[in-house]
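Continued from yesterday's entry.
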Amino acid sequence: MVPLLSKEETMALIAHSAAKYRVPVAFVTSIVAAESNFNCAAVSPKGAIGLMQLMPETAQQYGADPAIPAENIAAGTQYLHWLIQRYHKHRHAMQKAIAAYNAGPGVVDRYRGIPPYHETRCYVTRVMSFMKQYSPARKHPADRRG
């Protein structure tokens, strides 16, 4: 039985893992929103589990039980960190990391970018949209008070 978490509890787990693995909070939050809509009991038809919809093999690679929300987020965030590092020198690195989270890094490498899969292209657009939503608001310099 997967314990249900409030969105606030989920956001606290995200903030902790994002800080620990040096991944932007907005990026992790956007992946969770796109993958499970903050539902820690989500299971995909392909067998992906939990908040970050980890495949059991990926969770195992990071020593996590994907059904435990804190471990799911920690493993998913570690994986995102690895993807960010893998593509950080590439043009459109963030989009490649997002595409690789969805389709796998081998596919992104084979196509030298976002693969021509409708699902992956929509996924990248969706996550990038969530990134705008979850990124801290940037204030205009004139709005600063000092």
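--- second protein ---
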Amino acid sequence: MGRHRKTYQAIFKDPVSASIAWQDIEALLRSAGAEISEGEGSRVRIVLNGVRAVFHRPHPEKETRRGAVRSMRRFLNEAGVNYDDV
């Protein structure tokens, strides 16, 4: 539980972090009840609380880029996920 909160805080931290591992974000999403499925190439489809999004897994690096972190912020907000949910 604490690990997911740490990831959640990192996503919403300013300035935007470029050192969040994608696998930590996926673990956070799963803990919040997201359905994650593979798309083509590095695409990942995510459905959480009826909100759908497509993200690209970073490769070959493990860290998520700042733009994707900003998009994840929006996605979590739209899906109604807050600090108490993780």
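The chain has one domain: 2-85. The chain has a mean pLDDT of 93. Will compare against the first tomorrow.
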